[in-house]
């Protein structure tokens, strides 16, 4: 073994030993997590706060995605063909601009099989499977149009 190669191998071996030694004393080293509680955990959190903050953000995003408006928007994809993407109407009447209470009352009436206008039969099968929450969510979304 020539001296240069020996020196290189020596450096790597000693370097690794020192690196592992250093990191085991470092509370922020994840390999030490099992014993990292209390103050150690606080330090780890400070050092890795980004990860936790990102998780918080993802959680908030998931909650926001489950808002009535978002759920209503999702349900509204089944209404677009007749009422238009922006609720401007088409085959069905314009929904844009209608108060949420009116939307709720009208959908509830269709769900109950009531006749409102001359084409109510088109809305009966649409409204029949709706839950109260579906109707509230749709109203919440339609009022944002
Ligand atoms: C196949 C076409 C069609 C689809 C799909 C449809 N609608 Fe309708 N919608 C109509 C028609 C036609 C009317 C008018 C019915 C009448 O004469 O009472 C109507 C009426 C309504 C009304 C009452 C409007 C008013 O001012 O009188 C609401 C609210 C409504 N629809 C909401 C929805 C929602 C929400 C969806 C999706 C979940 C939906 N509709 C899907 C055709 C449709």
Automatic annotation (TrEMBL):
Transmembrane region(s): 6-22
GO molecular function: electron transfer activity; heme binding; metal ion binding
Residues in Cytochrome c domain copies: 67-145
InterPro entries: Cyt_c-like_dom (IPR009056), Cyt_c-like_dom_sf (IPR036909), Cytochrome_c_Oxidase_Subunit (IPR050597)
Gene3D superfamilies: Cytochrome c-like domain (1.10.760.10)
Coiled-coil segments on the chain, per record: none
Name under which the protein is recorded: Cytochrome c domain-containing protein
Organism this protein belongs to: Luminiphilus syltensis NOR5-1B
SUPFAM superfamilies named among the record's database cross-references: Cytochrome c
Keywords, comma-separated and alphabetical: Electron transport, Heme, Iron, Membrane, Metal-binding, Transmembrane, Transmembrane helix, Transport
